[in-house]
Amino acid sequence: MKFEEFGFSDEILDALFYMGFEKATPIQEQAIPEILKGHDILASAQTGTGKTAAFLLPILDRISRSNSGQTQVLIVVPTRELALQIDQQIQGFTYTTAIESISLYGGGDGVEWEEQSRALKKGVHIVVATPGKLISFINNKHFNGDTVKYLILDEADRMLDIGFYEDIISIINALPKERQTLLFSATMPDKIVQLSKKILNDPKRISIAISKPAEKILQATYLCYDEQKVPLLIQLIKDKPAYKSIIIFSSTKKNVSTIVSALKRKGLEAAAISSDLDQKQREEVLLAFRAKNIRILVATDVISRGIDIKDINLVINYNVPRDAEDYVHRIGRTARADTSGVAITLINPDDMRHFHAIEKLIEKEVIKMDVPPALGESPEWQKSGPRRGGGGGRSRNSSGRAKPRHKGNRKGGSGNRKRPPKRD
Ligand code: AMP
To answer: What spacing in Å lies between the alpha carbon of 49 and ligand 1's midpoint?
Structure first.
């Protein structure tokens, strides 16, 4: 569907032209007409589907036609990074208009607070904010919600995960009852449905297959022991110039540092991003990665959701994410818009059953590969994970194997598997 068909103003159409947006994505096709009609929306859509433009474009169209200089739009998001990212998209779309926006987030200094207070006083049309920061502005009476007509909650599931429920309710209590509310969430757990019942008025439900990664992502896994992970990682990345931009996700901060040091020892420049860094440092690393000044980013879950970095060619899951939905989010960093990408997950015996849960969720068996023989022998794939207490029985070797397993010296039975050589 072409954007002209929505009846957008010329200003918005010009902005879309300059941004290179030609056709609406499925979430945009579904959401934009309903939002333009004034309906509340409950949408499940993950990052990468074009959800941000799906809520921004119709709202921007509406406010560009009104002459009010007051704050009409409030967008509440879980993280500072997402606030900045949305604010950047707003600036892109409103380049040719007089619409002004501001993002409010935690972690700033006194000067930032002063600037933001001044901007709010002067009047901005759109405020993008994290809940905690917004509450402080509300409490200090620097933010007045009385004029808000449109409230958007983005990544609502993540906000509840972080513990922002009470803050969200307080924010909503500071807004007029008469408003249009759009709730976007990557997943739709019960708590989101409950929240939606409380704050939405007869919403239209929109759902974009949330649990299926984009078809263009080539997914694969390696069955390996923990000791094999670092050397395997290096083999996967070294001398592969086609992978210009790589993200490695790890579940722990400790592993992030181990991985970065190991890569550096092999002459592979990598940067880490985890909660060890403060907000400013995280932003700097993300900026350098976006600008392609850093080839390899090693990250904990802090950035796995919501952040839009274009043209990542390879995503490696150093561990299997415990939450199957997180797998979809992580590999969603690749194959955005028109690019294709590769997502590789390293599975140790303890993670096998978690990966099986992921396969159930994505309704697809992902190729399982053995580590290269030089790294030793791979564990057997078992959907329910390794047997505890040495119970015998042959493990199944079923799903989607990419190549025959090398036989090695295995004598059969799970207890006799050859372990990988120890690294020095
Ligand atoms: P989002 O799901 O909102 O994080 O968007 C993912 C990426 O797709 C962003 O970089 C958007 O700029 C881009 N995008 C969104 N909608 C379109 C579209 N209709 N055509 C081309 N790119 C788009």
So the answer is: 7
Of 207, 230, 250, which residue constitutes the final position of a domain? 207
pTM: 0.63
- Ligand 1 site: residues with CB under 6 angstroms? 21, 23-25, 28, 47-53, 308, 336-337
- Which residues of the chain, if any, have pLDDT below 70? 108, 209-215, 301-308, 310, 335-340, 385-424
* Number of structural domains the chain divides into: 2
What's at 317, amino acid-wise? N
Same-domain pairing of 50 and 80: yes
In angstroms, the CA 46 to CA 329 distance is 7
User: Are both 194 and 269 inside the same structural domain?
Assistant: no
CA pair distance 139, 158, nearest whole angstrom: 24
Mark whether 202 and 233 lie in a shared domain. Answer: no
The two most distant CA atoms of the chain are separated, in Å, by 79
Residues 41 and 161 reside in one and the same domain? yes
Distance from C-alpha of 188 to C-alpha of 210, rounded to nearest angstrom:
9
